[in-house]
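Rotation project, supervised by the postdoc (A.L.). Task for the rotation student: set up a whole-complex structure prediction and record inputs and outputs verbatim in this book. Inputs entered:
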Amino acid sequence: MRWRRAQGERRRFGCFSILASLIAMVVLGLAMIFRPQSMPTSQSLLAAQAQPRASALRRASSFASIEDPKTRSLALFQEAGRVIEHPRCMNCHPRSDRPTQTSAMRPHMPWVTRGPDNAGAPTLRCATCHRDVNFEASGVPGSPKWKLAPIEMAWQGETLGEICRQILDPSRSHMSRAQLLHHMTEDELVGWAWHPGGNREPAPGSQAEFGSLISAWLDTGAKCPA
Amino acid sequence: MAYSLWVNGKTHHVDEDGQTPLLWVLRDALKLTGTKYGCGVAQCGACTVHIDGQPVRSCSFPLEAASAAQIVTIEGCDGAEANAIRNAWVTRDVPQCGFCQSGQIMSAVALLRATPAPSDAEIDLAMSGNICRCGTYNRIRAAIHDAAGQVRSTQS
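Outputs recorded:
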């Protein structure tokens, strides 16, 4: 047996090992190319990009089966609270001097402030960007009375019960019950919440349905949740 | 549809869709390209013009609403405050890339006309809708103070 190659003798390779390596590489390459793959398919829109759908609001008449007026009043306000606590309403009832925006209720950009009349600082008015109507080209929402609710009517961070007592308190809401009902039912800035434009989610139901809930709630004693 | 626009002291006639943002009418139809397109969604302030004396984002202002207004762009902005702002901008070498500066200047001029001696807080508040990607905010604030002083000195 020779353990050492004689000096000057060339190393020799068998052709079988080279051929086997080539075949293995070809087989591996073909396996990679023709392995089972799922074809690209269309994806559904992300929730943030999909056109939002309005959710329904229970009609005031559907609460008639609740016999106890106090319980009925509470139930009516709980349903109306789905509108009151919706971002379309809450964004303009901040507890600071700065509004929020989007359904995530993030701080408003640009970094605006309410100013002396709740319609912006004298040098950066809401009207710098917001017009009388929604402007589709820029996506900027608008209404003739575009402004924040007074700071006394801050809702963000409040429970529904606290908001309830707040809107019934004329010293904070600056409204009688008749004016409150008119505000909820007729006010065009409140009405914007159901026609917000762009891809904003409207408040549940309609302003008329919301108004009838508020009206029925007032008629049943305007009870507030705890 | 045909509209008449009063821009920088002259009447212009344009035939565009009434929902066209004023920005594009100024830039494309009237060739007043000093007003810049930054974001198109009223977030950056680069497109600021004066409408009836108030700073407004022209990207969010429909042509049909502009036809009854007096519009001033950076090309036509003049007066004591505008001159003082221009001088202060040059002295302080305010712009870096310069893209946002016409909007910054339009907001600054409107600020000085409403508030002749603004504090830092008032400047920050009035200018907070004008974004500068180069971060020249400190120079802008200093230049507005300089310009306010210049206006006061020329008027006294």
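Student's summary: The radius of gyration of chain A is 33 Å.
Supervisor addendum: The interface with chain B takes residues 109-113, 121-125, 127-132, 135-140 of chain A (CB under 8 Å).
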